[in-house]
Amino acid sequence: MDKQQAIRALGQIGIDRMVESARQTLLRVNIRYDRWFHEKSLYDSGLFDRVIEMLRAKDLLYEQDDATWFRAAQFGADKDAVLVRSSNIVINPDERPTYLGSDCAYMYDKFLERGFNRVIYVWGADHHGNVPRMHAIRQVYGLQPEQLVIVLYQLVTLLRGGEKCASPSAPATSSRSTN
Predict the structure, then answer these.
(1) Lowest mean pLDDT among 56-65, 66-75, 153-162, 170-179
(2) Do residue 76 and residue 15 come from a single domain?
(3) Is residue 1 located within the same domain as residue 55?
(4) Which of 86, 110, 144, 169 is most buried, by CB atoms within 10 Å?
């Protein structure tokens, strides 16, 4: 196979292994999902394009700097947001949608296609800037504030006496009972 085919094939093997590892980890803590959702399916199914066209039809998108922007500030967000990056910045069309762009389609899938009443997102703190923009999209979809819950978490390193504490997977060094 040529180089591009090899990259795609190896990439898929890597994705499959990572997903299986995540499944096994979740099973160990008794978490099971009814449906595993691949972001790529948003694009392959055409849902992402349909959502973009719906937002465009409502005049909620505009083009600036060769990128597609969502009028998030119109709904109380601190600023508008890019949904599709410029082809001058990202050459590969498959890599142009932003996290927020795919989240708009994913939220549409959850609420409007599958009929969820409430969705809880758990995000790393580095995604805090998209919280008001997700609530802007929620408003576009006609959803109530309590239907969309976004929980942010932050990884921290705990120190005791200036040294790292044992990680949760490491055996405890203290003889004190945790019961």
Answers:
(1) 170-179
(2) no
(3) no
(4) 110
